[in-house]
Amino acid sequence: MPLKFDPIGLCRSPYTDKFGIPRQPRLITAAEARIELLPPYAREEAFDGLEGFSHVWLVFVFHDDCLDAGWKPQVRPPRLGGRDKVGVFASRSPYRPNPIGISAVAQQGLERNGKHLYLRVAGADLLDGTPILDIKPYVPYADAIADAAGGFAQKPPGSRFEVRFSEQARHGIAEHDPDGRRRLAELIEQVIAQDPRPGYMDRYPERRQFSLKLYALNIDWEIDGTFATVTAIRAQAL
């Protein structure tokens, strides 16, 4: 029997392109986002009591190209280098029978801007514009299982690159984040340090130059061994 759900909100995040999105929540602590609540859910009383919870679960839809992409019984997780296969239900691949995901993020309170109500969150791993189906409080005694096994993802990924900024890139940060409110330098460093490239890129060692998008900016960077240098930060062409 088909089921129909209406989004309660949309995620407004710095990730305007899939390339660069962390593969799990809370890996990029500088990533701050807002959940824009949609009518009739944009009501403060719907969040009474949430101030006592430090984190929430976001239940969301993998939109973009996932809705019509279909699914396969086996996938190649990036954590395994994009080579080895596991069952789709042993992965968090967005290409699922129903493209639904969950993320545990820090909640930082409500923000009202005219008719618009937002829930501020940190550590999100969601593409800008992601439809949010539900918000639930994170309950530590039930949700944190101390002796749980993590299969092939037992430990969080470490930093792969030491990130440096060229003089031109530093000028770009000063231009596009003059007051530091976006935490742009920290965000770029955290995203690139964990290597946002697809796992299969190890097969192409000759490619050293890359670009990713954050907010409305193009971030150009290049790699040399264990170093990644941000070479330029440019506004995207309209």
Describe the structure.
By secondary structure, the protein is mainly β. The chain has 2 domains: 9-143, Elongation Factor Tu (Ef-tu), domain 3; 162-235, RelE-like (YaeB-like fold, 2-Layer Sandwich). Helices cover 10% and strands 32% of the residues. It is built from 3 helices and 12 strands; from the N terminus they run ββββββββαβααβββ. The protein has helices at 140-143, 167-176, 184-193; strands at residues 9-12, 32-37, 55-61, 74-75, 86-87, 100-113, 116-122, 131-137, 162-165, 209-214, 217-224, 227-235. The strands form 3 sheets. A 6-stranded antiparallel beta barrel has the order 1-2-7-6-3-8. The chain has a 4-stranded mixed beta sheet with strand order 9-12-11-10. A hairpin with a 2-residue loop joins β11 (217-224) and β12 (227-235). The relative contact order is 0.21.
